[in-house]
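Chapter summary example.
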Amino acid sequence: MESLIELLPKLTSTLRKGSCGKIAVIGGSFEYTGAPYFAAITALKLATIKSYSPSLIVYPGWKAEDVLSKIERAECIVMGSGMGRSEEAGTLAKAVFSYIAEHQMPAVYDGDAIFWACQSDFKFPKSKYVVFTPNRAEFDRMTKRFLGFETLNEENETALHDAVKKLVEQIGASILLKGHADYYMTVAKESGLCDFESGLRRCGGQGDMLAGALGVTLNWAMKSSKSEKSIAAACRASSYVVRTISKRAYEKIGRSADTPDMIQELPGLLRDVEKQ
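The structure predicted for these 276 residues follows.
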């Protein structure tokens, strides 16, 4: 909770729309429409603007020039949720990778963005304000592509964390590895285990929620201190948010709890944090 308290902007009467952040979520495809919604609504509920809600601003299309013209106004990019693996998605992803690196923007790469970053015909540009959020399967894809070895069946936590460190050094971006406890390693060589209690129910969309939450906390961190060292606080805060609302939803509903139930827990969590 401490990292979230540290980053959470104070609401005042002088703030205007967008003062707490403008996050662009790039994702979705013919098959996957829910994933980018979960990322965007999480960002919105954490008090940002520009993220299927009347409050969400949604633009369709795959053309890189159209998308890049929109994200010029954003302060942080979240890309990959439900993006798919079509040729159009790949072309767009690679254009955004290059744009982020050129402008040194904070960004979160999840899901299919990780797939596209790992393609052998693409040289991923180093971006020091970028955080990848792989699950174990996606992390295995990354280590095979960039380090040349598999990690999917690695059960030794020390060896796994060492692989995270090597990967961060190789790609020049931070990593928040999702698991029974989340583990982060940043380009500033800060690392830690996020073992906040979570619900036992693991449902689709939780990873998208983490990506959206991290987009917000990363943006807040960059605003408070334009330094790679603040990325660690953003990782801890976003992990705390998603794991805690998972716990609360599970305690209320049990095994039927799903991602929309978790979203309903966000306002109460923020209210509790603000009371601290």
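To summarize the output: The chain has one domain: 2-274.
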